[in-house]
Design goal:
With about 270 residues, this protein is an alpha+beta fold. It has a single domain, classed as Muramoyl-pentapeptide Carboxypeptidase, domain 2, CATH 3.30.1380.10. Helix content is about 45%, strand content about 5%. It has eight helices and six strands; from the N terminus they run αββαβαααβαββαα. Helix 1 packs across helix 7.
Length: about 270
Amino acid sequence: MTETSKNKLKRLLPTFVFILFLIPIATSSLIDFEKDRKHEKLLEEIRLAEEWEQRVYLMGHFDQTEREDFVQIPPEYIMGPNKMYLRKETYDAYKDMRDAAMAVGINLKIASATRNFDYQAELWNNKWTGSRIVDGQDLSVSIPNGLERFNKILEYSAAPGISRHHWGTEIDINGADPAYFNTEKGIKEYAWLVDNAYLFGFCQTYNIKGIERPTGYNEEKWHWSYIPLAKDFTQEYKRLIKNENIKGFLGDEYASKLNLIENYVLSINTECLI
């Protein structure tokens, strides 16, 4: 090797050493980048899976009898022969409220609790086809126009997928008949609930419609929501569910025309959002 070549090699040697020093750093950085990318992808997949599971829950596509966060309500607390279920937290709060009411001679029984999508669809479809009479009418005959019939059923019944009864946070107390709450007994029970239900976390979901609640279901003095859970579910529904997701029942082709989420799911007593 000539002297000139040796001198060139000496000059290049630091560069070679520096490159050799950088190789493991660059390799490590690439590995770390790939790990981070895979980790982010995994987190995104987990997030999407959790959102999908939450959508399934919010729209009632589950069997409450198979969920560990639900309990069966004892027969002495319900009206009728059917088995009913609630979220554990809702049931515990209801029982405390019932015990307090019983101490002053008021018996608060549950007429309806959790209703999953299939159960709600059966109720809805029966009203749609006339198998179940509504206000003394076979709606399939008295209201042949589909959109008008849809609106009529919505006066008191939620379409499958938009019912808060899917969540295990809602209870209908002592029936679902407006006339009952005009009786002496019903007036007394309702007055107690208005004065005391909030102490146990419950709120009357559908108050009288007016300026603060111009749309949605008619007033339901029997329908009470366990707010510590239902408040979060309401916000999750707003975030995750779209009007196009509401389908799978008779007449669902009209659902997209009615903005059901804004006008029904979210149109509740403002006190229930606090």
